[in-house]
Structures are given as structure tokens and as C-alpha cells.
Amino acid sequence: MIKVTIWNEFRHEKSSERVKAIYPNGLHAAIKEYLDTDEELEVRLSALDDEDQGLPDEVLNDTDVLLWWGHMAHKEVNDELVDKIQTRVYMGKMGFIALHSAHYSKPFRKLIGTSGNLSWGRDQKEIMWNLMPSHPIAAGIPDHFILESEELYSEPFAIGQPDALVFGGWFEDGHIMRSGACFIRGAGRIFYFQPGHEYCRSYYNPYVLRIIKNAIYWAKPCEPGYEIINDAPHITEPIINEFNNL
Ligand code: ZN
Q1: How far away, in angstroms, is 227 Cα from ligand 1 center?
Q2: pLDDT tens digits, residue range 80-118?
Q3: How many angstroms separate the alpha carbon of residue 22 from the centre of ligand 1?
Q4: DSSP strand pairing (95-99 vs 119-130)
Q5: Domains of the chain with bracketed CATH
Q6: How far is the centre of ligand 1, averaged over its atoms, from the C-alpha of 234 (Å)?
Q7: Whole-number pLDDT of residue 44
Q8: Angle, to 10 degrees, between the axis of helix 206-219 and the axis of helix 27-35?
Q9: What is the Å distance from ligand 1's center to 246 Cα?
Q10: Residue 100 alpha carbon to ligand 1 centre in Å
């Protein structure tokens, strides 16, 4: 059983009739509806305006993979909460999946250590290319698929060199984007996935949903075989003594 929490800022859905018409219960609820068809996943929803910004310790510490969608209220997220998320991911206790405009969220930027800046433009057709069919996040995904309308997100995308680049987006205006990128930080795994603009319908696309599900399985904690210490411990005992005592 993998415990998944989908954190959504959940503001556009309340303030915009257009967004409400597409995602009446929130875009996180659309993702949950799909994930709930997998009995291995236990999925919770949480939102910025919930108590403790949706992530009190008892929820955060009970989450194996945290999905994050935010846009207009990145700055409102408590820095203390962001630190807790970073520590939990670095310690290998939780995976993190940043969706769409979460490229600019506090936790994503803190986790990967860059600005997360990118260029953006009008909604348009996108071709999503599967660049790494052997990667577990690409399981079941064809060589490419088309999103009829997505917000243009374009390079330069300030993420540095990801540990794996699984998907690349090509937009009809000619721009390209590293749309699906994996990062290893500490003992934790992070995936960024670009589709999911609030005016588009990408969280109903079967391939987008499958990729998100695949990413949850990839990012889940890996049960490290030794204790990860969140510190820089001083070594006092030479490890070579293990050999000398044989
Ligand atoms: Zn957007």
C-alpha cells in the first residue's frame, strides 16, 4: 500500500467559473478519481486553506508520495512546512511529484536547489515525446501523444541537469520543454511533470494520468538498508577495523 497525498492550492477552482467547469471538485480530485482505481494506492486530498495548510505532521509523516499543484499562492506556503517536506524527502521517507506550475513552488525549488524559472505563453497544442521508453515512469506510454491544449512552457527551464529526462514537450509555436524530469536528492526521488494548466483538461488525459501513477510507484520510499542520518557525522572509528578483526 502506498500512501499518496495530493496537495492542491485549490484557489483557481473557487475563484474562476471557467476552471470550476473543468474541475468542479478541484483538479486534485480529478487525479484522485483515476488513482482510486488502483487498490495499491491510498489517496488523500489536501489544500492550502485546510488546517495547517493541509499538511499537519500526522498527515505529512504518514505520506509516502506527495503530489503538489500550486500557482497563485506559492508565497503563502509556510517556510517551516517547506523545510519539513525537504527533510522528509532527503531522508528517503517520501517521494515528491511537482505538477505543472509547481515548477515555481517553494518545495520544488528547495528540493532541487534552483530557481525553477521557465518561459511561458499562450495555450496551444503540445506533442509529448517519450524519450526514455525503458524508464518505469514511461511504462504503457506510446512514443508520443498529443495534448490538444496546454499552456506553453518552454526552455530555458532552470532545473540544471536532471538525473533522467523521460519526456520532452514540443509546442505548436515551435518551443521545446523538458516536460518530465527525474531528480535524486539525498535518499529521495523527485519528479517534475509539466502538463496541468488550470484552463486545460490534461488531468483527464489517460496518458497524463498513467504517467502520474507510474511516477508515484517510482518515487515511493525505497526502504534503505541502513539508517539515513540527517547530519554530517564525525567518523571516529576507522571502518577498516572491520577487516582487521576478521
Ligand atoms: Zn498554468
Answers
A1: 39
A2: 999 999 999 999 999 999 999 999 999 999 999 999 999
A3: 14
A4: unpaired
A5: 2-115+178-244 (3.40.50.880)
A6: 46
A7: 98
A8: 70
A9: 60
A10: 7
Q: Residue 5: which of 28, 24, 25 has the closest Cα?
A: 28
Residue 179 C-alpha cell reads as 516536460
Reported as a single tens digit per residue, the pLDDT across 51-78 is: 999 999 999 999 999 999 999 999 999 9
pLDDT value of position 223: 84
Beta bridge partners of 96: 66, 190
What's the predicted TM-score (pTM) here? 0.96
Amino acid identity of 232? Answer: A
Q: Position 226: which residue type?
A: Y
CA of 102 to the centre of ligand 1 (A): 9
What is the whole-number distance in angstroms between the Cα of residue 196 and the centre of ligand 1? 7
DSSP letter at 154 equals E
Spell 132-155 as b/e; 16+ CB within 10 A means b. Answer: beebebbeebeeebebeebbbbbe
Amino acid symbol at 76: E
Which position has the grid cell 507510474? 214
CA 166 vs CA 18, 36, 176: distances in Å = 32, 25, 14
User: Distance, CA 153 to ligand 1 centroid (Å)?
Assistant: 8
Give distance in angstroms: CA of 6 to centre of ligand 1.
17
Query: What is the whole-number distance in angstroms between the Cα of residue 43 and the centre of ligand 1?
Result: 24
Gap between the Cα atoms of 54 and 115, Å rounded:
24
